[in-house]
Amino acid sequence: MSDTGIIALLLIIANIAFSWKGFTNESFFNGYKFVVDKIFTNKDYKRLVTSGFLHIGWTHLLFNMFSLYAFSWPVLYTLGGINFLLIYFVSLIGGNLLSLFIHRHHGDYSAVGASGAVCGIIFSSIVLYPGIGIWFFGVFIPGWFYGLLYVLYSIYGIKSAKDNIGHDAHLGGGVIGLLVAIMMHPSALSENYTTILIIFVPAIVFIWFIITRPHILLVDNFYFKTHQKYYSPDHLYNVEKANRQKELDRILDKISRSGMNSLSKKEKGKLKEYSKTVR
After folding, report:
1. I want to staple 173 with a disulfide (CB 3.0 to 4.6 A). Which of 63, 95, 104, 256 is the partner?
2. Residue 68 to residues 13, 57, 119: CA-CA distances in angstroms?
3. Which residues contact 220 (CB under 8 A, 6 or more apart)?
4. Which pLDDT score is estimated for 152?
């Protein structure tokens, strides 16, 4: 295996290891996933990266890793391992930033997955080799057509909110990956401009609507049907503090009525956590 191939393999191994840890440890999962209020209020910016190495389940993880494996070689072969990593992480962060912007008034919104980064690699591959494609149930789908369908599906997904997929991160990651690939390999723009425009134009038009007409968006997903709105980090902090105090009061009241042994394991853990914050 070449050095560049090893880089892609190491990324896949890192995703599997980090995700498996999240599958088996809820505290670990919650500590690193993308959560709007944690990023804005607690300035926990690492979540913009760490959330990309967590997944909801094995199906989610394996689909992303298969896609990464299938589309990684054109980028690795043409641009090299360092540029491959740059596209991967810039697309991951760019996709999460777009998601953060869209859901900036939804403090309880959270997400995980490498999809933004993987889409950046997929779109980069399409820019470099428009003839690349995938076989789907025995049918070959050209890369340019796949890219167009992906953009349109992501737009529809953001608008309709019919599933639990972070379509906004897909769209942001894909566009960032496309642009960075062009910057690294400018000749691709003149050679493959038709393919690039087919993918790029609808994505940019929709992002423009996000920025100038945010009220047209219906942003929700399977896991978060209602959202807590906030208008400033201070407001969100005060709401979170009030909720913690309410939960603490409930636990203390339960202790006064039934004793310490009446607490569940989860309640004891929360009490221990609250005690650390007042030391």
Report:
1. 95
2. 12, 17, 8
3. 161, 227
4. 64
